[in-house]
Design goal:
alpha/beta; 46% helix; 16 helices; Nucleotidyltransferase, domain 5; elongated; 3 domains
C-alpha cells in the first residue's frame, strides 16, 4: 500500500491549489492525495471520488515520484503541427503592412483571409483554407483595421514647427499663464451615417434614408487643461441662401463670430494677482475661410485678450478637438434617421449636455490630456469641478 505523509508546507500548497483551480480533474487528484494523507482507506477514497482503485494508486504514485503537485496537473495533448509554421508570422505581417499591391503585385484593394491563403500557396507552397489563415492571424495580432487618411498636401516642416509651438503653449496652459482652447466645426447631415452596432443573428439592423440636403453645423472649443467644452449650433437648410440672402460662408462666419463672443464671456479679460496684463486666451483654429474677415477682426479688437493660433493646412491631428466628433457621432447620430433638423439638433444637444457632466468631463479631460501632453515633466492636469452653465439661447449656444 502506498503511504502518503505530507509536511505542513506541502499540505498548504495542495489546499491552496485546490481552492484556486477551476480544473475538475486537478481538484479530484489533489483531493485523493489529501484524503490519503489524512488516513482515509483506499476503498472510501474510490467511493468518495467515484474513480477506480487503480486510478487512486496511479495519482498517488504520480505525486510521490513525478514532482509533487506538478505531477498531478493534467497534460495537454500536443496535437498536430500547425499548418502554417510560426516562423512565417513576421513574413505575413510584412505582407499585411505593405498591402497586396506592394507585397505581392496584386491588383487588390486589401487583403482578405482567402487572398492570404492563396498567396501563401503561391509564395511558400503551403495549401491552407481561409479558416486556418484566420486562426493564424488572430494568434499573431493581425486583425481588421479601419484605415485613416494621411494628408499628402500637408507640409511636414510647418507641422514640425507647429508641434514645437503647441508644446510651449501647452506648458504655459498647464502652469496657468494662459487658457488654451482647441476649436473646430463639424457637419452633421440629415442623411444617416452608418457604423457597426450590436445586432441579433438573422436580424440585420436597417436604417431608413432619404435624399435630404439639410445640414447642421456644430462649433466647439475644448479647454486643453480641464476638458471644459463650449459649443454652438447652426442650422443650414438646403434653401438657406435663398431664404436669408447670405452665402454659406457668410453664415458660418457669423456663427464663428458668435462662438468667439461665447469664449470671451466664458474666459473674461481678468488679471491674476501680481500680473500687469490680463491672461491670454489662445484658440487653436484651422484655415477655414470663415475664420477670417472683418467681423472676426472686429471681435478680436473688442476682446484683445482673445487670440487665434492658426494651425498648418491639412493637419487635423494637431487639433485635439477632432477626437470629439467621432464620439459625438457615435453617441448621437450614427444609425439614426431624423425627421427634421429640430430632431437632429435636440439629439446633438442632449449628447453635448452629457459631455458637460462631471463624469464625461473627466473622460474628455483625460482624452485631451493624452493627446496634447507636451512632456512627462508637465504637472498633472486637474478636472473641471462642475459642468459649465447651460446657455439659454436657442440659437445656438449649447452647454
Amino acid at each position: 500500500m502506498i503511504r502518503i505523509k505530507l509536511s505542513s508546507e506541502q499540505e498548504r500548497e495542495l489546499e491552496g491549489a485546490f481552492k484556486s483551480t477551476d480544473d475538475r480533474r486537478l481538484r479530484d487528484r489533489i483531493q485523493i492525495v489529501l484524503m490519503a494523507h489524512r488516513g482515509r482507506p483506499r476503498r472510501q477514497i474510490t467511493q468518495d471520488v467515484a474513480v477506480d482503485r487503480r486510478t487512486v494508486q496511479r495519482w498517488l504514485n504520480a505525486y510521490l515520484h513525478q514532482g509533487g503537485l506538478q505531477g498531478l496537473r493534467p497534460l495537454k495533448a500536443p496535437g498536430a503541427p500547425p499548418l502554417i509554421p510560426p516562423f512565417l508570422a513576421e513574413v505575413v505581417r510584412g505582407w499585411v503592412i505593405q498591402g497586396p499591391a506592394k507585397a505581392a503585385g496584386l491588383d487588390r484593394a486589401g487583403w482578405t483571409h482567402e487572398e492570404l491563403a492563396a498567396h501563401l500557396g503561391r509564395a511558400c507552397g503551403i495549401k491552407v483554407r481561409r479558416s486556418a489563415v484566420g486562426a493564424f492571424c488572430r494568434r499573431h495580432g493581425i486583425r481588421p483595421y479601419r484605415p485613416t487618411y494621411h494628408y499628402l498636401r500637408g507640409d511636414p516642416d510647418r507641422q514640425a514647427e507647429a508641434l514645437v509651438e503647441l508644446a510651449e503653449l501647452r506648458r504655459a496652459a498647464d502652469t496657468g499663464e494662459l487658457v488654451l482652447l482647441a476649436q473646430d466645426e463639424a457637419r452633421f447631415p440629415m442623411v444617416p451615417t452608418l457604423c457597426a452596432t450590436l445586432g441579433v443573428k438573422g436580424h440585420r439592423p436597417t436604417v431608413g434614408t432619404r435624399d435630404c440636403k439639410d445640414l447642421l453645423y456644430v462649433f466647439g472649443s475644448v479647454n486643453c487643461v480641464d476638458g471644459t467644452l463650449h459649443t454652438r449650433t447652426l442650422e443650414s437648410p438646403k434653401d438657406a441662401k435663398k431664404a436669408t440672402g447670405r452665402s454659406k460662408n457668410r453664415r458660418l462666419q457669423e456663427a464663428f463670430v458668435k462662438h468667439l463672443e461665447d469664449a470671451a464671456k466664458a474666459y473674461p479679460a481678468g488679471q491674476r494677482e501680481g500680473e500687469q496684463e490680463p491672461r491670454r486666451v489662445v484658440m487653436l483654429v484651422d484655415n477655414a475661410s470663415w475664420h477670417g474677415g472683418t467681423p472676426v477682426r472686429e471681435v478680436l479688437e473688442r476682446h484683445p485678450h482673445l487670440q487665434l493660433k492658426r494651425l498648418p493646412s491639412y493637419s487635423p491631428k494637431l487639433n485635439v478637438i477632432e477626437r470629439l466628433w467621432k464620439a459625438l457621432r457615435r453617441r448621437a447620430t450614427h444609425n439614426r434617421l431624423f425627421e427634421t433638423l429640430r430632431d437632429l439638433k435636440a439629439s446633438l444637444r442632449n449628447s453635448l449636455r452629457w459631455l458637460c457632466t462631471i463624469n464625461a468631463t473627466k473622460w474628455l479631460s483625460h482624452l485631451v490630456y493624452r493627446a496634447c501632453r507636451a512632456d512627462e515633466s508637465a504637472p498633472k492636469r486637474t478636472y473641471c469641478a462642475k459642468p459649465p452653465p447651460l446657455l439659454p439661447n436657442d440659437d445656438e449656444p449649447c452647454p
